[in-house]
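Run log, item B.
One chain of 527 residues. Sequence copied directly from the ordering sheet:
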Amino acid sequence: MVGSLSKVGWTFVMVLFCGGVSQAAMPKDAGGKGKEYEPGELIVKYRPGGKLHRGELHRRHGSRKIKEFSSYAMERVKLRAGTPVAEAVREFESDPEVEYAEPNFLVQALVVPDDPSFTPLWGMEKINAPAAWDMTTGSAEVVVAVIDSGIDVNHSDLKGNLWVNTLELNGRPGVDDDGNGIVDDIHGYNAITGGGDLTDEVGHGTHVAGTIGAAGNNGLGVAGVNWNVRIMTCKFLAASGGGTAAEAIDCLHYVAQMKRRGVNIVASNNSWGGGGYSRALHDAIAAQKDMLFIVAGGNDGTDSDVTPTYPASYDLPNLVAVAATTPADSLATFSQYGRHSVHVAAPGSAIYSTAPGNSYATHSGTSMATPHVTGLAALIKSARPSADWRGIKNLLLTGGNPLPALAGRTVAGRQIDAFGSLTCLDSRLFSALTFPASGTSGLPATLSALSINCDAPLGPVTVTLSSGVLYELKDDGIFPDPVAGDGVFSASISPTRSNETFYFSSPAGSEQVVTSAYPTPFAAAAP
């Protein structure tokens, strides 16, 4: 059975401006309508070994700790009354105990129009999920974290696939039975209230969760990419559709904590983003090195190689940025794209899924494309229990279906294909990722390229400059290569000319990059 179709879909834009030392980028109006960060608050990252002195630091600045994120040596800080945020950033960053400080940026919701005429669940057909379901429909041993607006825990299509914290479920109401500092986090965590109430007033998180793991073959509504999975929820988007960067980091901290406690979390789904660069959020994502951070590419319809959007444009090994496609196999008009910065695409127009109140709705956006990818990551894990995040990420990319509309617009140039990922055999993918901008002669720079065959790295990878100099790129985890064995090969160079042509090559393919054609490449996106 299917529910009525909604004509309004939610996607999320994080309005961020560069914090830290880049004071010129900070907005001037922080307290009125359309404010871009929370007045009177900072996120502060401390230097190693300085925890014992934080109380004295707060006394010096007249501030206080709101919440500590111990996984990242960060705090959400309340400022002395009347202290301008820009002034407080300067004060904190002048303190020897502080690595950096930045405003607590806000998240806001946007409306995207929907076309309700498409066949419900067309996205599952496009990603070839029915063929994959003949091999696996998922596993209750695999957990996905949905960081969003909450979830309808009583939805008939979802409640059987919710992650359960058994110590809290079987414990005493109002008591922190598992000792993680949170009371009654039975199905997840509410970073707004600090408790376990996951009520979804917006509907966005419930919709996302249904695409990942609505129960299949149960005679109800819809089926997710996984018929069997466990969905952990962290709520940080409130009824207004808004939240803060600190609350997003709090969710990442919770997920990391539960992962360390043995919960088999494969990936987090992050159907939100956009705007400027937050170093604190970057560092929190980077710290989750043992799971994927799958994120909406953005809804501005622009090239992220030229105009980055965050967190999708963070250059991190465990991140997968997702574009949105239509039933006609075209790139959705609202979708961000980027030959070197958006990894893969998935259905994102008029997606039918679960909604609060045991109902169903249709929404559009890269927010809706992202859970198709997260769902497939969980499905791959169910079929390959020993696979780690590196192999899963590579199978998401190499198993996909090449589409003309995506050629030159994403790293893979492909729309995900569940059956293709589960049955991958000799599917090679090559893509240049980072290279120096024009005008950087004599300055150290990094070259990197993705070279993989199904889930495995495929080398050797070389880069020949137009001057004839040859470099060999390595996937060994030694600087500048961030992670060994992930299929991204890297090398450091010092270009001798302002404009250069780079010839990338490996057994997986080749690519020529002329730096003058890319004045703001992805490698130079972050401040």
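Observations after the first pass:
- Residues 1-34, 109-118, 517-527 have pLDDT under 50 and may be disordered.
- The domain at 16-109 is CATH 3.30.70.80 (Alpha-Beta Plaits).
Flagged for discussion on Thursday.
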